[in-house]
Amino acid sequence: VASVAVAPTGNTDDTESQVNEYLLARFQQDDDAFRLVNMSSISDAMSTVTGTLSLLLGGIAAISLLVGGIGIMNIMLVSVTERTKEIGIRKAIGAGKRSIMTQFLIEALMVSLMGCILGLALSWLILEIVTIIAKTITFSMSLGVVALAVGFASAIGLIFGLYPANKAANKHPIEALRYEG
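and the corresponding structure tokens:
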């Protein structure tokens, strides 16, 4: 077993063909006497696999965010329905659409961020357990990942909280006060 290294400025394909020509001459054109493995082709294959896995995980994450957002929207719609009288009272004493919408958007944001904090805590716990089990490898959560998670959770909470907040803000005060839920 022998290995050949290419200079940082060299071309691996050219080097591979030169080594192949040399070995063919050395072994009288018997290409069964040796085997060449170009590590750049293995690296390219690994890059393709990694790219495919990234797309797959990204798709799973997108579906999870969509399902979570729909869950938040449903929770907030139930909250709006259950608190119809409260909305009517607030509107009757002078609360505007903006203040009611802001209240429900903040609530949707808080629900989303509580889920985010729970997910981050669970992730951290799993990383700690895996670090203890692996012993030689240390796993940690980067601050950038935490910031990205909080950003996405906030965006999902606000986007999926818009419809329920708008529904609450547009309730007619007299109809809301008459509501028997």
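(Above: one complete record from the training split.) DSSP finds six helices and no strands in the chain.
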